[in-house]
Each structure stands twice: as structure tokens, then as C-alpha cells.
Design a protein that fits this description.
29% of the residues lie in helices and 42% in strands. The protein is an alpha+beta fold and 131 residues long. The protein has one domain (2-125).
Length: 131
Amino acid sequence: MRFHGLAAVALVLAMSAVRADDKPEVTYKQDGADVVVSVKARANNSPHALIATTEGSDKALTLRYVLVQNPDIFVRSMKWVTVEWRLVGKKEEDVKVKGVERVELNVKTADLKAFADQVQKVVEAGEKKEK
């Protein structure tokens, strides 16, 4: 039962951490039939996990990413992380980025382990449905 309370706290923290980055430079690179859109983000110079999603239409696209790090292993330096979104079958001129939103989630080891177990169950449920 302890995890459910922690999950609610983590979700509230994540939602409160959603913010538009300070005007990150959005770059575009055509890769065959796809365009790869990217930004650079600062993070603690320790291991991280990253997921990038999009929301909206091609002409008003919001790029969102979640950066997960563990404060138990933070170090006293920072690094730049490249965040990429592959837009399949799109050309640069087809896409208008409206904004970039960052969700930063700093979660301690024990809570990450409990969360990872829950995420694995969600993945397995999705894989079963795909069959």
C-alpha cells in the first residue's frame, strides 16, 4: 500500500514540474522520409532515463519529454542531454513546433524500483493487447 501513496506523490510532483523550457533551440534534421526534431536539455551528470512524446497537430505541435533521475546518486556537475523526436513521414516544412515542455522527475532508488515494477506490468498488458 505504501507504493500507491508514493505514486500519487510522484504524479503530483511530475505534473507540477511540467514547464516550458527557457526557449530551447529546436533543430530539425531530415532522415530519409522522416524528420528528427531535437533539443538540448541540462541534467545532473548522473544516469538518467528519458521519454519523448508529442501532442497536437503537425501545425501546432507540442514536444514533451520526461527526464527521470535518482537524487541518491547525484553528482556535483551537469551535462547536456539530446532529446529527439522522430516524426515519421514528415518533412521539416510540414511541422510547426508550438512549444517544448519538460517534466523532471527526481525519485529515490527504493521508489524507482517500486515504480519500475509497476511500469513493467503496464508494458506487459500492452504487449498482450497487441497480439
